[in-house]
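Support request, please re-run this one:
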Amino acid sequence: MKTDLTKEQNDYAVFLPALSTFYALFVGRQRRHEYIDYNRVPSFLQHGVESINWLAPEGIWKYKWSLHSAGHASLDLQKDMYREDMYRVRDKNTSWLLGDSGGFQIGKGKWEGDWRKDSGCPQAQKKRDGVLKWMDKFMDYGMILDIPAWVSRSPEGAAASKISSYQEAVEGTQQNNEYFIKNRNGNCKFLNVLQGENFQQADDWYNQMKHFSDPKLYPDAHFNGWAMGGQNMCDLHLALKRVVELRFDGLLEKGKQDVMHFLGTSKLEWALVLTAIQRGIRKNHNENFTVTFDCASPFLCTANGQIYTGHRTVQDEKWSYLMSSAPDDKAYSNDTRPYDDLATDFFTKQGMNWMPTPITKGLKVNDVCIYSPTDVNRMGVSTKTSWDSFAYALMMNHNVYTHINSVQEANRQYDSGNYPSMLINDTFDKQEVKDVIARVFEIDNKDQALALIDEHTKLWMKVVGTRGAVGKKTINSSAQFNNLFSEN
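Re-run finished. Output below.
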């Protein structure tokens, strides 16, 4: 069983687990000797709770990359925050973190304040400054504080932010960009976020924002890469067009703009597409170019009592992560069988397979299903679930490992000649998405490269976006959980 997933990464686009504060809390607490009960920690975890920290040398399995959002963090740098130790106190030589800016919180009305340009709002300024300083202190790369193009369509967001139009979102983001460029201290590299709900808006947003990444205009403070949001991150036609434009606009240069992040991207097929884009730019333009993508699915499905059972990579079919409701019964509270034995039996009876992980390999059933029918939780309440909070953390570790391993295995399968139905067109001549993408970046002429992209519009239309978006048909996109998983 693979325990160092960093070594398995090869030249694939890099998946970033979107680290939850709930999960990081356990690592921080045990570092301060404030964990609930050390007898609760299974003995095979030789380094205690630190064993579930994949960013640390003590991790039972290791992976150097992750993402965390300023929207879920304390921006008070003077406050001792043990719950954030997992990323605040780490070895930057062996780990790499990308900071999300919290723009989503503005869009949803969680960060109140007048975010219009030149409003002079103290609330907005406090957040703007707090996010920048948080990024500069803790993150390797960070996204600028964008105001999403859709905020004016969100009743809560529009009311809380005072943003009433697309252009006001653009202008507010420009002000944030200017503040970051003027006040950054150089410890963190920043990604210029590209938004837009359709092709027209995405093109317009790019044209109004691209100068912030131009070394000629900002020799010492230009932004250092790109974050693809809105329609840019879920429409392959638009994404390829944008990457080509960046290349020929001189904004994907080695040592200057080496990273491109795709926000909230979970589909296995998109992991393969992003690897193809990364390889195309590395081969033909910038050998340091790295594509990253994130999602919080491993944490969110655990919170709903779901666990990953594996993945599905069948030739010429839909590829997906496999997940199902987890074994959860208070009758298991005295069950000392290996957890993998229970899981194998439990899922086999439902016609499913079970894929063990380093964490489940050492667990007993009652390490997870700990509550008996007469037990109460710390609040003195009898719960429906047999899991306590630490059980959720253990299962989150399992889910994160399975998600990363599934992404890497899908890339290995694709490289071996296996392919999902979404990434091939058999209508006339067999065309694979990765082959056309490779051809796009081999062309050393902007107009010809863009023409080739437009020529294959029907092929890109097959590639369903991670939020249900498909090609130019889509104006707005919304999260669709069923697009990410095959639920058993």
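The radius of gyration is 23 Å. The chain has two domains: 14-299, 305-415.
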